[in-house]
């Protein structure tokens, strides 16, 4: 049987690795590292750096594979993602079988935490339909935690709920009812532009928790243009960007 361990590695900072994660990494036979193309080579490089620093057993093998590209032209977003996940699962399966056969321990280093807006667990389920495999999860620091730590803010007001959602949902459906605090992930279009900025404060971070982190905050009406410009420059410089932000309504101003 294959034993797959999904290890949350935080936001790419080796210091985000927990002791549990380090021990789990050193118990496997094989580590899978996805490659997302030359412009996102930093992502594979950071995973390799973590392995170089944390692995103590030279017998652990590292296998890199090219990650399939999602068909963004598919008119159905869900269907496109499902097809993409099927393709990724096929690559995982082929890579595991070619290196380990049907017996051994394999790890995949997951950005942030495998439970929060990440599809690794769903892909692992598809792999289980192809080979006999168990799945273990080691939790990791999330970009949400890194964001609030950088800005030294609590994620919620006293006794109040908050919502974690995507830029697509904010853009298409607006501000959810019943909450005054939103954390927005997976937003490639600065979807805060779609809401009324009056009385809203934003805390934004790109490359959260990493050495090249960029953090900006302020009233949305004043900070929006600066964030949009900064984000575009950072993406051009690095070839990729991961960002996250928290929006909070000033409820005191309404009373």
TrEMBL record:
One annotated GO biological process: cobalamin biosynthetic process
Known catalytic reactions: precorrin-5 + S-adenosyl-L-methionine + H2O = precorrin-6A + acetate + S-adenosyl-L-homocysteine + 2 H(+)
Keyword Transferase among UniProt keywords: yes
UniProt pathway annotation: Cofactor biosynthesis; adenosylcobalamin biosynthesis
Coiled coil: none
Gene3D superfamilies in the cross-refs: Cobalt-precorrin-4 Transmethylase, Domain 1 (3.40.1010.10), Methyltransferase, Cobalt-precorrin-4 Transmethylase, Domain 2 (3.30.950.10)
EC class name: transferase
Protein name: Precorrin-6A synthase [deacetylating]
Organism per entry: Actibacterium pelagium
Organism classification: Bacteria, Pseudomonadati, Pseudomonadota, Alphaproteobacteria, Rhodobacterales
């Amino acid at each position: 049987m294959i034993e797959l361990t999904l290890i949350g590695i935080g936001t790419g900072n080796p210091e985000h690795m927990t002791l549990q994660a380090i021990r789990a990494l050193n118990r496997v036979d094989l580590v899978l590292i996805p490659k997302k193309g030359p412009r996102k080579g930093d992502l594979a490089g950071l995973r390799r750096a973590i392995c170089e620093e944390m692995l103590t057993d030279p017998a652990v093998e590292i296998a890199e594979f090219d990650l399939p590209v999602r068909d963004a032209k598919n008119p159905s977003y869900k269907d496109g993602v499902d097809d993409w996940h099927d393709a990724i699962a096929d690559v995982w399966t082929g890579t595991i079988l070619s290196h380990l056969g049907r017996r051994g321990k394999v790890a995949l280093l997951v950005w942030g935490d495998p439970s929060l807006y990440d599809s690794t667990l769903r892909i692992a389920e598809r792999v289980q339909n192809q080979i006999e495999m168990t799945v273990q999860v080691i939790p990791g620091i999330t970009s949400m935690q890194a964001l609030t730590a950088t800005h030294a803010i609590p994620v919620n007001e006293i006794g109040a709920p908050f919502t974690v959602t995507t830029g697509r949902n904010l853009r298409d459906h607006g501000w959810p009812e019943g909450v005054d605090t939103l954390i927005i992930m997976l937003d490639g279009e600065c979807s805060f532009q779609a809401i009324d900025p009056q009385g809203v404060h934003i805390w934004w971070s790109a490359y959260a928790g990493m050495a090249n982190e960029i953090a900006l905050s302020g009233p949305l009406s004043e900070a929006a243009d600066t964030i949009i410009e900064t984000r575009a420059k950072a993406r051009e410089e690095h070839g990729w960007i991961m960002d996250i932000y928290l929006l909070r309504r000033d409820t005191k101003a309404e009373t």
